[in-house]
Amino acid sequence: PEVKEFLKELPKCEHHLHLEGTLEPDLLFPLAKRNNVALPQGFPQTVEELNEKYKQFDDLQDFLNFYYMGCQVLINECDFYELAWQYFLKVHKQGLKHAELFFDPQSHTERGISVDTVYNGFAKACSKAESELGISSKLIMCILRDCPLQKCQDLVEKEAAHLIKEGKVHGLGLDSAEKPFPPTLFTNIYASAKKLNPELRLTAHAGEEGDHTYVKNSIDFLKVERIDHGVNSVQSDDLLRELSANKTMLTVCPLSNIKLQVFQDLKELPLLKLLEFGVPFSLNSDDPAYFGGYILENYYAVHETFGFDYKIWGDIVINTIKGSWCDENRKTELI
Ligand code: ADE
Ligand code: ZN
């Protein structure tokens, strides 16, 4: 109980959270009804049935199929706003102070929804979270790596170019099915995004199902300064030394890795090796509505498995704050 209070009170930041992954079954069904969206054939009919499905996924793709079906209920700006606001209310109670939030425009634009509808809804929730809950946040737009390349390029260079240029999206990320879509495919798109706004921060999912070369190539070709997941980096000591030397942060997602069967047991999560090599990492929830826990449940799970002492937890939290993409004043406030 005492350590749980300690974990709750830590000034936590989250770097790996998909806003669409916060769609709880108890919001999904009412939104489907409100927006007259017919869920696909065979989709669970009740909150209970859907929660039953979410107990275990075969792999990343099995999860993604449900994630994209869920996205279909999001239509209007107020839906996106409500989704994000529900997230902020939940994590506010868990001691979250700063959030860097992914969103996937292509899971909506494919259905005829504009990038601005999505962005405006999310951005409103972010402003309100800052003023009413004291949670700072940044939005990171992700490219779906399993969409046709031309569409990915159009997203960055046309549909969302204004958001990048004006600094409304703070970062660019890359997500969805990893293995058949190596990072090198996106080299030119990352370069042109950075050209639109040299201040744009860059990250990419890598080394979740893909091997360590996905991590190395994301750094070398996409010029990312952070890696999402990155757990397969431990396949290469050379890579670990490089991540450590450059202080490249891995945004690790413990409960996600279990639900998607990246690991069978949390004990396999390579945190001790990362600590040994001095590779900075943060702990994150990824898609909490699907993976059975928000930020604090991820901290609890790691604590139950590894039993870190106060010193190690302090180091993890300080690294997390330092690796955040907020300005230096905000970092000082958080520490
Ligand atoms: N989209 C949402 N969550 C994801 C994950 N863990 N990996 C890849 N794409 C995702
Ligand atoms: Zn993710």
Written account of the structure:
It catalyses: adenine + H2O + H(+) = hypoxanthine + NH4(+). With 335 residues, the protein is α/β, with parallel strands linked by helices. It has one domain: TIM Barrel. Helices cover 51% and strands 14% of the residues. The protein contains 18 helices and 8 strands. β5, α11 and β6 form a beta-alpha-beta unit. α5 packs parallel to α7 and α8 runs parallel beside α10. The protein is globular. The model has no long low-confidence stretch (mean pLDDT 98). It binds adenine and zinc ion.
Give a short account of the largest sheet.
Answer: 8 strands, parallel
Rg of Cα set: 19 Å
CATH class: Alpha Beta
Please identify which CATH superfamily we are dealing with. Answer: Metal-dependent hydrolases
Low-confidence stretches: none
Secondary-structure element order, N to C? HEHHHHEHHEHHEHEHEHEHHEHHHH
CATH architecture: Alpha-Beta Barrel
User: How many helical elements?
Assistant: 18
Derived structural class: alpha/beta
Averaged pLDDT = 98
CATH fold field value: TIM Barrel
As for the number of domains, it is: 1
How many angstroms does the end-to-end distance come to?
A: 24 Å
Query: Which ligands occur here?
Result: adenine, zinc ion
User: Which strand order does the major sheet show?
Assistant: 1-2-3-4-5-6-7-8
In terms of quaternary structure, the protein is: single chain
